[in-house]
Design brief:
Strand order of the largest sheet: 1-2-3-9-4-7
Radius of gyration: 26 Å
Number of domains: 2
GO molecular function: DNA binding; DNA-binding transcription factor activity
CATH class of the largest domain: Mainly Beta
Distance between the termini: 29 Å
Pfam families: Cupin_2 (PF07883), HTH_3 (PF01381)
CATH superfamily of the largest domain: Jelly Rolls
Helix content: 25-40%
Number of helices: 5
Largest sheet: 6 strands, antiparallel
Protein name: XRE family transcriptional regulator
Number of strands: 9
CATH topology of the largest domain: Jelly Rolls
Keywords: DNA-binding
GO cellular component, one term: cytosol
Structural class: alpha+beta
Length: 182
């Protein structure tokens, strides 16, 4: 919280003395708040936000934007996983591992070649997003088919039967991201 207040103060070209005066608190107390050595009361936060010309919601939102998590999985650390299409010659690399209590999304790098033995059909909860990287593929979604080429994106409901209809090139590579409803 203190870092967000200090950042706003500096962005507004305000001195410690000017902001503390505007918020009706001592410079020493404001310095302790900014450096995380003291907690500001709700009343003090309200006065600080007023003096900075922002709402308290803006301050809390700024704090939320500073925290969070990130995950980097290097190419050689990406796990090859078994999915429905694995038996038919598909290769799936999981690009992110969700470690929470429930899956939010699953991103895959999928590679298929013409030697695939069959064209499986899929159905699953959530929404799926596909982005073609290489090759051309005729893809079935319910009773419709789409020709997918590099750079094309297809988004659809996962609970409708879907899957490749036929390969139009020797090798196809695409990203498939399944997003699960909250």
């Amino acid at each position: 919280m203190g870092a967000a207040i200090k950042q706003r103060r500096l962005a507004g070209n305000l001195t410690l003395a000017a902001l503390s005066e505007g918020a009706g608190m001592s410079s020493a107390m404001l310095s302790r708040v900014e450096n995380g050595m003291a907690a500001a009361s709700l009343d003090s936060l309200e006065r600080l936000c007023h003096a900075l010309g922002i709402g308290m919601a803006d301050l809390f939102q700024e704090m939320d934007q500073k925290s969070g998590k990130a995950q980097l999985i290097k190419r050689d650390e990406q796990m090859e996983v078994v999915r429905v299409g694995t038996k038919q010659g598909y290769t799936y690399r999981l690009l992110s591992y969700d470690r929470g209590p429930r899956k939010i999304f699953e991103p895959f790098f999928v590679e298929v070649n013409r030697k695939a033995q069959a064209w499986p059909r899929f159905s699953h909860p959530g929404t799926e997003f596909m982005y073609m990287l290489q090759g051309r593929l005729e893809y079935r979604f319910g009773d419709k088919t789409y020709i997918l080429e590099p750079g094309d994106a297809l988004t659809f409901s996962g609970n409708v039967i879907h899957g490749p209809e036929r390969m139009l090139d020797e090798r196809v590579k695409f990203l498939a991201i399944i997003i699960y409803a909250e």
